[in-house]
Amino acid sequence: MSRIVRRTVELSDRQRCMMDYITAFWRDCGYPPSIRDIVSGCSLSSTSVADYNLKILERKGYIRRHREVSRGISLPHLLSADHPRQVPVIGVIAAGQPIPVPDSDLWDATSGAETVEVPDSLMKGHSDVYALRVKGNSMTDALINDGDIVLMRHVNSVDNGDMAAVWLRDEKEATLKKFYAEGARVRLQPANSAMQPIYAPAENVEIQGRVIGVIRRIG
Amino acid sequence: MSRIVRRTVELSDRQRCMMDYITAFWRDCGYPPSIRDIVSGCSLSSTSVADYNLKILERKGYIRRHREVSRGISLPHLLSADHPRQVPVIGVIAAGQPIPVPDSDLWDATSGAETVEVPDSLMKGHSDVYALRVKGNSMTDALINDGDIVLMRHVNSVDNGDMAAVWLRDEKEATLKKFYAEGARVRLQPANSAMQPIYAPAENVEIQGRVIGVIRRIG
DNA sequence: ATAGTTGTAGAACAGGCGTTCTCTATGTCC
DNA sequence: GGACATAGAGAACGCCTGTTCTACAACTAT
Questions:
Q1: Residue among A87, A80, A71, A54 at smallest CA distance from B74
Q2: Domains of chain B and any CATH numbers
Q3: pLDDT by residue (tens digit) across B115-173?
Q4: Of the candidates B66, B163, B217, which has its C-beta nearest A121's C-beta?
Q5: Does nucleic acid strand C have an atom less than 7 angstroms from the CB of A137?
C-alpha cells in the first residue's frame, strides 16, 4: 500500500519566526545573520536547533545556504530579482532649455545628485542609463506629462523609429520624438499618432539619448 | 599657512577593483565577501591591504562596515533603497472589456501570476496595489499608451481630481479619467487638457481603483 | 513493546575571519 | 637629509561561526 506523503511547504511557528528574523536582520543590517544571531533573535536554545530548522527552510526553498561559509544564508527572491538600480536624475527636459550631458564620472554612487529607483525590467542590464525630469506640458504629444521621469540611454546614434531626446540647434529646443532619418532631412514623429510630424535638416538635430522608459507618479 | 586638502572621492585602481569584486560577489552569492575573499578575488598580498583599503572605501561612503562581524560589509545603496515590491499584474484594461477585481488571497508571492517590479517611491508604503496592462490606444487622452503598466490602488471612493479607473455600466466600458463628482452627475476629465470631458450620471459609474503611477517600457 | 521519525538540548571541535602589530618602500614638503 | 603621510607585506592572535556528535522526549506505525 502506498503511503501518502505530506509534501507541505508550510512552516512551523519556529520556522516562520526564523524566516521573519532573517528577513528583518537583512533589511536592518545589510548582511546575513549568523546562526547564533538567529539563536538569540528567535530565543532558540541551541545552534543545533537553528541548524536543524535552517536545513528544513533550505529544503523548502525559503533560503539558500552555503556550506562552511559564515553567514552564508541568502534569500533566493532577493537574489533572483536583480537589485533595483539607482539611476541619477541628471537634469530637466523642457522646451527651450538644454539638457546637461551626463558626466560619467560625476553620477556614481557617491554623487549627491537625486536618483530614482528603477525596476530592472526597464534597464535590461544596461548601465549607461540616466533619467530626466519632464517640466511643462510640451511633451504631451509624446504621451509624457509634466513631472514624469523619462529613462534615457546615452547613445550617439539611434535607429529609425526609436524614441529619442533630440536637440534642435536652430530652435534651441529639446524634445522627445520618434526619430526617422530620411536622406538629408530628419522626420520627428510624435508618439501620438494624431499629431503631425516635424521635419528638420539632419545637421540641425543632435541626438541626446534614446528613451527606454517612462515612470509617472500620480497623487 | 593652510594646507590644501584633497577631498577626493575618486578611487585607486585597487579600490575600484575591490568595489567591483564586492558588488559582483554579492550579486553572485547573495551574501557579502569576507576579507580573504577579497584578497584572493583582487589578487591582494595580505588581509591588511584589504582592510586598509576597505577603511578608505568606508570613509568615502562606498561601503558600510560592521566591526567584529564576519562578512560585515554592506552596500549602502542596497540598504537604503527598500527592496522593490513585486506587484501583480491582474489584468488588462481596454475599452469595452471588464477589469477583473483583485482577489486579495490570490496574488501573494506564491501565486503564479505575472508581476512587475515597482520602485518603492511609487508605492509609498501602500500594500493594496495592483497593476493593469493597457491594451489598445483608447487611453491616449490620459497620456497612457498601448502596453503601459498602470499602477492601481484598490479603493472604493476617490476624491475629486483623482485619476481613477472607472467602469461605465451602460457603455460597458472601462477608462482612465480624472474624476469629479458634480451633484447627480460625474465629470470624467481626460488628463490631456486638449480633450473634452465626458459627463455621466453618478449611478452609471463604478470606481475600480485609483491610479497611482504609470510605467512605460520603450524599445 | 519496539523501532523509526521528528524536534530539541548541550557541548565540543576546527577552521573562518576580523583585527592588529611590526616592518618596508615610496613620495612630498621644508 | 629628516619628518611625515601614504601604501603595502606578512604574520600572529583570538574571537566568531558552521558543523557535528551524543542524548533525550514525544509521537506514530507495526
A1: A71
A2: 13-80 (1.10.10.10), 85-215 (2.10.109.10)
A3: 666 666 666 655 566 777 777 666 666 777 777 888 877 666 678 888 887 777 676 66
A4: B217
A5: no
